Amino acid sequence: MPVKIEHAAETPAAAGAKKLFVKSYGCQMNVYDGLRMAELLAPHGYALAAEPETADLIVLNTCHIREKADEKVFSDIGRLRKNNAGAIIAVGGCTGQALGAKIMQREPAVSVVFGPQTYHHLPELLGKVTSGQQKRAFDVSSFDTNPTLEKFDNLPTPGVYGPSAFLTIQEGCDKFCTYCVVPYTRGREISRSAQSIIAEAHKLVGQGAREVTLLGQNVNAYEHEGISLAKLLEMLGEIEGLERLRFTTSHPANTTPDLIAAFANNPKLMPYFHLPVQAGSNKILRAMNRAHTVESYLETIAAVRKARPDIAISGDFIVGFPGETEEDFEQTLALAHAVQYVGAYSFAYSARPGTPAAQMADTVDEVTKKERLAALNVVLDDSLATFAQSFVGQTVPVLVERPVGNPGRYGNQMRGRSPHNLPVNFTYPDTLDAATLPGQVVHVAVTHSGSKALVGTLASR
Ligand code: 5AD
Ligand code: SF4
Hints:
The protein has helices at residues 28-41, 67-83, 93-106, 122-130, 147-153, 182-185, 194-206, 229-237, 257-265, 282-287, 294-307, 326-339, 366-389, 407-410; strands at residues 5-6, 18-24, 46-48, 57-62, 88-92, 110-114, 137-139, 164-168, 170-171, 190-191, 211-215, 223-224, 227-228, 244-248, 272-274, 312-314, 316-319, 345-348, 395-403, 413-417, 423-427, 441-449, 454-460. By secondary structure, the protein is an alpha/beta fold. Helix 3 (93-106) links the parallel strand 5 and strand 6 (110-114). The structure holds 5'-deoxyadenosine and iron/sulfur cluster.
């Protein structure tokens, strides 16, 4: 799920004379990492700046998944060099991992480069530069020595920035889909211990989190000393004060019967399942090395729906993969029609250096990719709109997150999420102390479905 987060507005300002700006590109895991980076630097005197132009240190926490994401990093570096020539620029994340040496060579303005598995070394790397010990510092150590777990052991206690928190439980990928850089940037699949995850969840809840979304590139491949994701969800479900659980992103091949049963049996697990399919043609799925077929994917969806009939299914799609014909694409459209996704993500195929698919002839031109993307989005938008519309006239439980805009300008409005992960904006009476609402699950009478959110009024608390 692509997001763009600039952490300045999210994390509390630490006391300190130096100003920090962290920008996270890409997925939720980068958001989690970006917050941890700010927390790692706070004891070293870095307070958050409102914008990059006034920062002493700018950390670009990058994404390498598609070519455009890389291009954005390079253009941001160029702009920062012009607008804030005095700042130290550090590049971390997946582009740092994959293109670190190139960045060091091409961008003299960048002083520090690190990767997703070495960001706990950031204060040390930075110290080398600020002390004058080194002009530049670079650490993208390989994945051979299990650095992921070392990283988690060296992160500070996570802060909480709202009622809904992310918690990384698994990293990396062994699936090697032929188009994807993740196995090369995040490394191989690795799971944290249930004990460390539960301890982190307790801390999050202690600081006010009411919902935790478990993160992993292959979150349902989670396995640690015999504990599966379903078991972990059951253990987390016992934490008092933790009201909602979610997890993302799953792989069809790891969607086991116990996980499917969790949707029926775990009352805290929300009825929303993000299960990327990527394409609706078995020929393309084979070429992508997806380890599932259209039929096995649909069987999994049917089993999940049987366990939890109201479940919202979301997914990811790639259009224009090498060799994708009009007929293959029609099958993708048919699959999207059949599943009736709620909030799926679609991307035009982008050849990534070093992946097997980059060796395949890119047979689909950019115009066709755009056309296919637009046609798929019509189907995806339509099923989302139909689903959202089905809540009009109903009362839904909403976990309140924050006020919407300026209360004077927009009236008394709050924003939260429904169990199916739909954003909900609702009004509340003047008599109510608004400060008490975030973190509560309230009931909202939905009056209509807007373009970005369900809209309603507070029915009961
Ligand atoms: N080109 C386009 N989309 C891609 N994704 C991963 N690699 C590529 C690529 N090379 C998409 C997949 C994945 C999501 C995170 O990004 O749909 O599920
Ligand atoms: Fe990439 Fe495939 Fe792994 Fe997902 S399952 S991270 S798409 S290689």
